[in-house]
Every structure is written in structure tokens, then in C-alpha cells.
Amino acid sequence: NNYLRVLADQENLRQRTRREIEHTAQFAIQKFARDLLNTADILNLALNSVPKEALENAEKENPHLHNLYTGVKMTEQDLLKTLKNYGVEQINPLGEKFDPNVHEAMFQSPVEGKEEGTIFTVQKIGYKLNGRVIRSPQG
Question: How many Å separate Cα 98 from the centre of its chain?
Fold first, then answer.
């Protein structure tokens, strides 16, 4: 009977150790990924700083602006694709109900046509690493 208990304990220990190793491997890049999120934010700010009107005819009127915008957009897309390959995904809660477990509220304001508690603006996009929130979206 004692022998069977020791065998069961050993098997439980092996399984728990295996789970911990898998968990550690999944979230080993968390700090590195969090540091890269600032770069993604900066690229997004750069893209949003260019007015839509300036982009409409930029290819003919201002090819330097068009090329710069295209390069920054491609860099942002490549960075997000690389992050996604390692399990990092964006959380953009625009139009969703506020969830205090996931979202970070910056302010609250009544908006006509929107249900109370609905997120109507996102100041910073959030990110998840393998399903775990590593940065809450701010809105």
C-alpha cells in the first residue's frame, strides 16, 4: 500500500513538473514582449499622426510622405505579425462592454447612442500573451 502511494506521488510530481515547465516556456518572453509593445505604440502613433486628407493624393503630390507612411505601416504590420507568431495578440475593445478584469478605464463620460459602460475610445491598445493579459487596453 505504501509502495503504491509513493508511486502515485511520484507520478503526480512528474505531471506537476511537466506543467510548470510548459507554463514557464509559454511565458518566458513576457518581459521582452512587454518592452516591444512600446515600439508598436510608437509606430501606431506615427501612422495616426498623418491626416487622411494628406494621404489621399500623397502618392502623386508628395511621394516622400507616401513612401515613409508605407514603410512605417509595413514595419508595424511585420512587428505585429512577429508578436502574433510568439503568442502575443492585440486587444482592441472599441464598442465592447467595459470589463474591469481586462480593461483599464481612463475616464467615464455619457455618450448619446451608446449604452452605459460601452467603450467609445481606446487610447492604448492592450495585448495578451497566450491568453494572459500582459497590458490592459486603456480607454
Answer: 17
Report the pLDDT value the prediction gives residue 40, as an integer from 0 to 100: 93
Q: What is the average pLDDT score of the chain?
A: 89
Residues whose CB falls within 8 Å of the CB of residue 55, separated by 6 or more in sequence, listed in order: 65, 66, 69
Amino acid residing at 109: S
Buried b vs exposed e over 68-79: b needs ≥16 C-beta within 10 Å? ebeebeeebeeb
Check residue 102 and give its pLDDT.
Answer: 84
Please state, in angstroms and rounded to a whole number, the distance separating the CA atoms of residues 16 and 28. Answer: 18
**Around 26, how many Cα atoms within 13 Å sit in the side-chain half-sphere?**
13
Residues 38, 41: Cα–Cα separation, whole Å: 5
Residue 96: Cβ-neighbour burial (10 angstroms; 0-12, 13-18, 19+): middle
CA 49 from chain centre, in angstroms, equals 21
Compute the distance between CA of residue 111 and CA of residue 31 in angstroms, rounded to an integer: 37
pLDDT of residue 139 exceeding 80, the answer is no
* Per-residue CA distances from 51 to 2, 7, 21 (Å): 75, 68, 48
Compute the distance between CA of residue 34 and CA of residue 51 in angstroms, rounded to an integer: 29
